[in-house]
Amino acid sequence: MFIHPVAETNAAKRDYQYIEVKPYAAALGAEIFGVKLGDLTEEQVKEIKWALADHSVVFFREQHLSPAEQERFTLNFGEFGVDPFVDGIEGHPNVLRLVKEADEKTGVVFGGVWHSDWTFQEEPPSYTILAGKDIPAYGGDTLFASLYNAYDSLSPVMQKHCESLNLVHTAQKGYGSQMEGVQDLVENMDVKTGDDIAGRLQVHPMVTKHPVSGRKVLYVSGIYTLTVEGMYHDEAANLIDFLQKEIVEHPMNLCRFRWEEGSVAMWDNRCTQHHPMGDYLGVRREMQRTIVAGSKPEGV
């Protein structure tokens, strides 16, 4: 496996005038300074979009967004996406409250596995925006992995093979009827389960072309990737397992974000996977989330 870091070279192409951008890791990620997310200018929004295109995930500090401010910030990037398994907060249906109380019995956290958000939808979300409201003194970091680099790390022969394949995505493993007891694991969130939505299948290309950067993406989505269209189960399982390891098991392909109260992370689901860590049992953590609608993934 050979990883091609991209953040530094991409950043060199930009001449930022209205924001300050500092790369956070070589594979992906950058911190943005000099902005107030609740009161952005058109020029700042344009340059934040540049930074997202270059670094796949961006981080802000000391923002302390209200639900209304997070909604306004989100709408700078598109319409709200649809969250099928968790309802929004009262008065702000597109803002999700993700909370784990200190007295919960398990270390399980909502979404606590590697994945890209909602790839089981026909038009998965383009961006996710997560704001830190109540943050543990330690633990609860979020890991990110580059799906650009994962594709680049493959041999030319494997790249061509993957480009010829389609993946079947589903929410069954996370939200199917067999997960009715999930409420006992995430005690303070009302998470819906059931086969009527979770059991639906959605097919997307295994390799996609990013609609902004034009780069090729290994569009594998962790828990939401079920099988390879047209393959026997064992063939598909072996290939998916190999590709998922290529994505998440090489340290040079990862970025690990340390949260603070008021931190905001925004990532591009079309070219990343992420994994929220649940290593803060006995401590309260509360986050506020919105998603931006996307489009149907395009093959290469």
Structure description:
The chain has 300 residues and is an alpha+beta fold. It has a single domain (7-292), classed as Clavaminate synthase-like (Double-stranded beta-helix, 4-Layer Sandwich), CATH 3.60.130. The chain contains eight helices and 15 strands. It has helices at residues 7-11, 42-55, 67-74, 147-152, 156-163, 172-175, 195-198, 233-248; strands at residues 20-23, 30-33, 57-60, 96-100, 127-134, 142-146, 166-169, 202-205, 207-209, 216-218, 225-228, 254-257, 264-268, 272-276, 285-292. The strands form four sheets. A seven-stranded mixed beta sheet has the order 1-2-3-13-5-15-4. A three-stranded antiparallel beta sheet has the order 12-6-14. It is globular and about 50 Å long. The two termini are 22 Å apart. The relative contact order is 0.24. Residues 4-9 have low confidence and may be disordered.
SSE topology:
Elements lengths: L6 H5 L8 E4 L6 E4 L8 H14 L1 E4 L6 H8 L21 E5 L26 E8 L7 E5 H6 L3 H8 L2 E4 L2 H4 L19 H4 L3 E4 L1 E3 L6 E3 L6 E4 L4 H16 L5 E4 L6 E5 L3 E5 L8 E8 L8
Parallel strand pairs: 2-3
Antiparallel strand pairs: 1-2, 3-13, 4-15, 5-13, 5-15, 6-12, 6-14, 7-8, 7-11, 9-10
